[in-house]
Amino acid sequence: MASSTVPFLPTILLAVAILVVTKLWSNYQWHRKYKFPPGPKGVPFFGNMFQMPPYHQGPWAKKMAEKYGEMFTIKVADNNWVFLNSSRVVNDLLEKRSAIYSSRPPMPYASSLMSGNCRVVVQPYGPQWRALRKIMHSILNIKNAPTFAPFQDLESKQLVYEVLQKPDMWWKANQRFANSVIMSVVFGKRIPDKEEGNIRELFNTSQEFIMALQPGANLVDTFYVLDKIPKPLKWWRGRGERAFKRLLKVYSTEVEDLKRRMSEGKCPPCFATKFLDNPETEKLGHAQMLFALGSLMEAGSDTSRMTLSQIIAAAATDSRWVKNAQEELDRVCGYAARLPEFTDRPKLPYLSAVAKEGFRWRPFAEIGMPHMLIKDDVYEGRYRFPVGTIVTWNSWSIALSEDEHQDPLRFWPERWLDPFIEGFGTKERKEIGEDEGARKALEDPLNGHWSFGAGRRVCTGYHVGDTNVWIAAARLLYCFDFQEVKGKPIDTMNMNVAEHRAAPFEVRIKVRSKQHRALVERVGGEVIGVRY
Ligand code: HEM
C-alpha cells in the first residue's frame, strides 16, 4: 500500500507548489498593474465584510470618508468596492465616465435566478437594459407630467384627509399614498384602502426582492465561486426558481387585468397603457415587459414614502422652516382657502426647496447603489481600477459633509434659494426669480444632491418622485402643524424610515385651524371612494 502512494507524493507536492507559485505570481502582477485608494485592513477571504454594518451603513461610511479622504476602498469577499466621498469625484467618474461606470455587479440569485435577468435595477449595462431605459425614459419624462398629475392630486387629497382623521396613523396614510400613486402611475389603478388580492401579492414580491438584496441574504451573491458548483448542489436554486415563477404569475395577473380594463375603456392613461402601445416594447420579450412594470412598482413606492417621512421628521424637529413654508403657502393659496395645486409651483419656490432639501437631508440609499466598471480605467494618474471594480457614491457622507453643504445637518430649504449658502448662481444677492443659476438649480430635481443616483444609471422615475413628494409635502404643510411628542424626541440621524409595519418615530400632527379642518373634510369627501 505504502509503496504505491510514495512515488505520487513528490508529484503532488510539485503540483501544489506550482499552483501556489502561479497564484502568488499572478497576484503580484495584478497588484503591480492595479492600484486602489487606501482603506481599512480586512481579513483573508472575507475582506472587510464584517466591518460594514448590515443596515444603516451611512455613519460608518462617513467615518471612513473622514479618515481616508475623497475615496476609500474595501474588499467584500473577492470584490473591490471603491467609495466616492465627494461630489468632485462622483462627477468625474460616475457622471463624466458614465459609459464605463454604469453596470451592476452580478447577482446570481437576486438578479439571475429570481428575476430572470429582467429586473432593471440590478440589470447589467447592455443592450437589453439600454432598450428598456429608453422606453421608460420616454414615458416618465417631464413632458408626461400631466398624465401622472391627476393621480398625485387625488392621492394627496386622500392623504391629508386620512392624516386628519387618524393623525397617529400618519405613517399608514403615507404608505397608502405612496403605494396608490405608483400603482396608478404604472397600472392606472388606485388602492383606495388597503392592499388586497393580487395587489397585496405585488407589494409582497417587492419586499421579497428587498430582502434578497440585503448583504449576506444569499451567499452566492457575495461569494461568486458558489455559482460554479454543480447545479444539484445549489441549495438556493429551487427557492430562486419558485420566486421567479411567482413573480411572473403576479405580474401577468396584473397585466391581464390592465388589458381587460383597457378594452372596456376603464383604464386611465398611465405608464402601462403607453408602454404597451409602444412598438418597441414587444421587442423586449414577454418576461422583460412584465418585469419592467413590476420593477417600476418596487422602485417607486417606498422611495416616496421614506422621503415624506423624513420631511415630517424635519418639520417636527425644526419649526423655523415650517413657518416660512406656511407663510409662502398662505400668501399664494390664502388662509385655508384652497389646497396648493401643481399650477402654483412657479409661485412656491420655497416649497420646491423643501422637496429638494427632503431628498438631500438624510439620503436613505445611505451608501448609494453599486455601479460596476466595465473596462479598466485610470483616475488622475494615481489609481488604476480593473474591470469589475464596484464603485458607489457615499451618499450619506456627501450629503452631511461640511465641505459640500453649509450647516449640513440642518433641514434648511433656504440653502436652495440663496446662492450665497450653497455657492451656485451669480454670487450677487438677488431674489430667486432673478437669479438664473439659482432658479435652474432649484427646478432641476437632480441638482445639488446625489439622492437619485448618478450618470446613466440615475433614477428613471425622478420626475415622478419629485412631483409625488412636492404635492404631498405642500398639502401636508398647508394643513397641519408638526411637533415632537413630549419625552420622545426624534433622533433624525437614526430614523428607520425603511420600517413599513410601524411608525418610524412618533410625531404629533395637529390641523392648523378649524377652517383647515373644514377644507380637508371637504376635499377628502370628494375623493374617498373614487375608483378606477
Ligand atoms: C421618490 C424618490 C426616489 C428616490 C430618492 C429614488 C432614488 C433612486 C436611486 C438612488 C436609484 C439608483 C441610482 C443609481 O444607481 O445611480 C434609483 C433607481 C431607480 N429608480 Fe428611483 N428613486 C425615487 C423614486 C422613483 C420612482 C417614483 C420611480 C418610478 C416611477 C423610480 C424608478 C427607478 C428605477 C426603475 C431605477 C433603476 C434604474 C437603473 O438601474 O437603471 N424611482 N432610484
TrEMBL record:
Heme binds at residue 459. It holds the Pfam family p450. The keyword Ion transport does not apply. Its cofactor is heme. The keyword Transmembrane does not apply. SUPFAM superfamilies: Cytochrome P450 (SSF48264). CDD domains: CYP64-like. GO terms for molecular function: heme binding; iron ion binding; monooxygenase activity; oxidoreductase activity, acting on paired donors, with incorporation or reduction of molecular oxygen. Keywords: Heme, Iron, Metal-binding, Oxidoreductase. Belongs to the cytochrome P450 family. This is Cytochrome P450.
